[in-house]
Amino acid sequence: MTQQRVTIPQTDLDVFPLNLGTNTFGWTADKPTAHRILDAYCDAGGNFLDTADTYPHWAPNAVGGESEAVIGSWLARQPRDRVVVATKVRDFPQAPQTLDYLQSQVKESLRRLQADYIDLYYGHFDNTEVPIADQARAFDELVTAGHIRYIGLSNYSPDRMREWFRVARKENLALPVAIQPHYNLVRRADYENTYRAVAEENNLAVFPYFGLAAGFLTGKYRTEADLETERKNHVSEYFNADGLRVVDQLVEVAQHHQVQPASVALAWLLARGVTAPIASARTVEQLPALLEATTLQLSDEEVRLLTEASEIFA
């Protein structure tokens, strides 16, 4: 596997063009399995992890923070600079996002991660009751204190993102360097019609979540019977004629290259200018298909066919 890296604009961070999602850690991947996934990912050249302080709070018997703790138990025996760690603060819009709140939460994340700093720290969801200026100042304080190196935004509206940049530039605060939009072949409109412009205007890295549409774009879900899994609620919204048409095109391109459909779906995102898509694995055996995307060269014609097949979602 190539050791290729891409630089996050406005930073000194060089990252692998596949951002390993770890929302499975503490849920469908227990600690030993997660450690094997992390070892295999890094051995293949990977160095970029994505988590959040509440992952996986939705899992049975989970309270949130388990993913960070699993990463921390692995990170404790690694050189800290082996990986770039991105995490997010609270996925509840009502979270206050005040300085006191953020300071308490980042310290909890650092404790679980067993780390002295976080490379990239996202505002996970906006609390529209808290002025953007207050949020921008609070995140800037975390940078100044050395708790975090860089700021990212996820699930903020484009207008609120633009306001953040306006305030930060006016007050000489630390600027966000990345956004994390929801973007894939069957979820195109939000990013392509709104967030892409924000990224281009501000020279931001783009790390989309649900790059495989919660597994739908792996090609595993072709019949109603295939939906009878623990991920049914996550993929059922895509399971229709339009979604299956996209999967059919993915499978055709994948067969031509002798790779998995997941590799093609992620390679399409890279071909569309994404910095590094986020994708998760619950077993080591799922990793090769994800990694393959970073070296898979789709032709212009293949990109066009996939783009046309998914145009209804744009």
Key traits:
single chain; 314 residues; alpha/beta; 8-stranded parallel beta sheet; two-stranded antiparallel ribbon; 10 strands; 41% helix; 12% strand; globular
Layout of strands and helices, then pairs:
Elements: E1 6-7, E2 14-15, E3 19-21, H1 31-43, E4 48-50, H2 66-75, E5 84-89, H3 99-113, E6 118-123, H4 132-145, E7 148-153, H5 158-171, E8 176-179, H6 189-202, E9 205-206, H7 232-235, H8 241-257, H9 261-271, E10 278-280, H10 287-292, H11 300-309
Parallel strand pairs: 3-4, 3-10, 4-5, 5-6, 6-7, 7-8, 8-9
Antiparallel strand pairs: 1-2
Helix pairs in contact: 2-3, 3-4, 4-5, 5-6, 8-9, 8-11
GO molecular function, one term: oxidoreductase activity
Pfam family, one: Aldo_ket_red
Organism: Auritidibacter ignavus
Distance between the termini: 33 Å
- Number of H/I helices: 11
Reading the helices and strands in chain order gives EEEHEHEHEHEHEHEHHHEHH
Helical/strand content category: alpha/beta
- Summarize the biggest pleated sheet: 8 strands, parallel
- Adjacency order of strands in the biggest sheet: 9-8-7-6-5-4-3-10
Specify Rg, calculated over alpha carbons: 19 Å
Strand percentage: 5-15%
Point out poorly predicted stretches.
none
Shape: globular
Would you tell me the overall average pLDDT?
94
Task: Write down how many β-strands occur, each being a DSSP E stretch of 2 or more residues.
Answer: 10
Helix content: 40-55%
What does this structure look like?
The chain is an alpha/beta fold. The chain is 41% helix and 12% strand. It has helices at residues 31-43, 66-75, 99-113, 132-145, 158-171, 189-202, 232-235, 241-257, 261-271, 287-292, 300-309; strands spanning 6-7, 14-15, 19-21, 48-50, 84-89, 118-123, 148-153, 176-179, 205-206, 278-280. Strands 9-8-7-6-5-4-3-10 form an eight-stranded parallel beta sheet, with helices on one face. Strand 7, helix 5 and strand 8 form a beta-alpha-beta unit. The longest helix has 17 residues, at 241-257. It is globular and about 50 Å long. The model has no long low-confidence stretch (mean pLDDT 94).
